[in-house]
């Protein structure tokens, strides 16, 4: 039981550390992209807006993931024969060979 409590505390500490290390850069990317989008609009660089807005949306999703990371920890206890690959917000499953 003591080992289980120690493992839980270690996992909590690791999640908190990772969240702290990821939150600032993720927020900076989102904020910087917001500034770039504003500049592109004011300079009428409309051909760049679509890509910039997709990047901004992805960075917002990354921020949400990092923010929720410590609340809903991933359960990784063993390697599985299948892995999930996330592409554009959707998940597909592929076989490992």
**What's the story with the biggest beta sheet?**
2 strands, antiparallel
Level of helix content? 55-70%
Q: Note the total helix count.
A: 2
Overall pLDDT level? 78
The main sheet orders its strands as 1-2
Shape descriptor reads rod-shaped
Compute the separation of the termini in Å. 37 Å
Work out the count of structural domains.
1
List low-confidence stretches. Answer: 76-97
Percent strand:
5-15%
* Total beta strand runs: 2
Question: Quick recap of the structure?
Answer:
By secondary structure, the chain is an alpha+beta fold. The chain is 67% helix and 12% strand.
Describe what you observe in this structure.
This protein has one domain. A two-stranded antiparallel ribbon has the order 1-2. Helix content is 67%, strand content 12%. Residues 76-97 have low confidence and may be disordered. The chain is rod-shaped and about 65 Å long. Helix 1 packs antiparallel against helix 2 (46-69). The chain is of the alpha+beta class. A hairpin with a 2-residue loop joins strand 1 (82-87) and strand 2 (90-95).
Q: What descriptors fit this protein?
A:
alpha+beta, 2 helices, single chain, two-stranded antiparallel ribbon, 97 residues, 2 strands
């Amino acid at each position: 039981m003591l080992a289980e409590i120690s493992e839980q505390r270690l996992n909590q500490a690791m999640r908190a550390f990772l969240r702290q290390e990821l939150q600032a850069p993720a927020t900076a990317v989102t904020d910087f992209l917001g500034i770039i989008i504003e500049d592109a609009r004011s300079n009428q660089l409309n051909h760049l807006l679509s890509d910039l807005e997709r990047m901004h949306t992805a960075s917002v999703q990354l921020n949400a993931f990092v923010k929720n990371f410590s609340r809903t920890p991933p359960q990784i206890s063993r390697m599985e024969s299948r892995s999930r690959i996330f592409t554009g917000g959707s998940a597909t499953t592929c076989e490992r060979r």
